[in-house]
Design brief:
The protein has 264 residues and is an alpha+beta fold. The protein folds into two domains: 70 residues, Orthogonal Bundle (Arc Repressor Mutant, subunit A); 178 residues, 2-Layer Sandwich (Beta-Lactamase). It has nine helices and seven strands. The strands form two sheets. A five-stranded antiparallel β-sheet has the order 4-3-7-6-5, with helices on both faces. A two-stranded antiparallel sheet has the order 1-2. Helix 3 crosses helix 4 and helix 5 packs antiparallel against helix 9.
Length: 264
C-alpha cells in the first residue's frame, strides 16, 4: 500500500520538534493555494499561531523571497516550491526574461517589470528599478489591476472571457486615480483594443502622473501567461517614445518567448 504523505498542517499537529519549520511550511501551503492576498490575522488563525509568532515567520519568509506584500500590506506567495510543471515553467520564464528586463532598463533608464498569471490574478515577479530619483516604482508580489495597470491589461486581454471576468471580479473594480476606468463595458472594449494592437497603456490609471506600456508574453503553447512593462513619469514620456516604445517592447517579448523555449 502506498504511504500517504504528511501535510505541513498534520506535521505541526503531531508535535514534532521543528514546530516553527512545520508552521512555516503550513503558511507557504496556505498562500500558494490562495488567489488573493491574506492579512496577518487571517494567516495566524489559519495556522493556529499567535500574531507575534506568525509575524516572525512571515518576516523570515519575506526576507527569503518566498512571500511578498501587496499595496494593502497583505501577504502573497512570490516564490513557488515543490517543482511541479507549471511552477517550473514560471521559473524558466522569469529566468529567461531577466536579461531583457535589464537591457530595456539600461537603454531607457526607467523601471521595467515582469508579471505572471497565477490562478486568476496577475502578480509582479521581477523588477529592475530606475535610478532616477523621481521614478515610477514597482515591487515583487504586487497584485495587478487587470483593468488599470498595463501589465494586468496585457495579460487579461488575452484570456478567455470567463477568465477575464474572474480576474476583474477577483481584484474588484474601483478607481485608483481620476483617470481609472471603472465602467465594465468600456473596460472590455479597451481590453479588446489591447488584444488587437498587441500592447497596453496605463496613462495615469494606477498612479497619477505615471505612464506605462505593457506587452503580453506567451508560453510554448501560445498562451499569454506573462507580461512586461516599462514605466516612467509622464514628463519623461516624450512623443518620440510614445511612437517607438510599444514596437520595441513587443520585439523584446518575442525574444523572451524564444529564450524561455530554449531553456526547456
Amino acid at each position: 500500500m502506498k504511504q500517504r504523505s504528511t501535510s505541513a498542517k498534520e506535521t505541526a499537529e503531531q508535535g514534532y520538534e521543528s514546530r516553527s519549520l512545520a508552521k512555516g511550511l503550513q503558511i507557504l501551503e496556505l498562500l500558494s493555494g490562495e488567489a488573493t492576498a491574506l492579512g496577518l490575522k487571517e494567516i495566524a488563525e489559519a495556522v493556529g499561531l499567535g500574531k507575534a509568532s506568525t509575524l516572525r515567520l512571515l518576516r523570515t519568509l519575506c526576507q527569503m523571497d518566498y512571500l511578498g506584500k501587496d499595496q494593502a500590506d497583505d501577504y502573497v506567495a512570490v516564490k513557488r516550491w515543490g517543482g511541479s510543471g507549471p511552477e517550473q515553467a514560471e521559473k524558466r520564464m522569469a529566468e529567461a526574461a531577466r536579461p531583457f528586463l535589464v537591457q530595456v532598463a539600461s537603454q531607457f533608464g526607467e523601471t521595467v517589470a515582469l508579471a505572471q498569471l497565477r490562478g486568476d490574478v496577475a502578480r509582479v515577479v521581477d523588477v529592475v528599478e530606475s535610478l532616477h530619483p523621481i521614478r515610477m516604482s514597482n515591487y515583487r508580489g504586487r497584485i495587478l489591476q487587470p483593468y488599470a495597470s498595463s501589465l494586468g491589461k496585457a495579460i487579461a486581454a488575452y484570456q478567455t472571457p470567463d477568465r477575464t471576468n474572474r480576474m476583474l471580479h477577483t481584484y474588484g473594480i474601483f478607481p485608483l486615480t481620476s483617470a481609472t476606468q471603472t465602467d465594465m463595458r468600456k473596460i472590455l472594449i479597451e481590453l479588446a483594443e489591447v488584444k488587437a494592437q498587441g500592447f497596453a497603456w496605463d496613462k495615469g490609471e494606477t498612479v497619477s502622473g505615471g505612464q506605462c506600456v505593457g506587452v503580453p508574453i506567451r508560453d510554448e503553447k501560445g498562451q499569454v501567461v506573462a507580461s512586461m512593462s516599462i514605466s516612467m513619469p509622464k514628463e519623461r514620456f516624450t512623443a518620440e517614445l510614445e511612437t517607438v516604445v510599444p514596437a520595441m517592447m513587443k520585439k523584446m517579448a518575442l525574444e523572451i518567448e524564444k529564450a524561455a523555449a530554449e531553456v526547456r
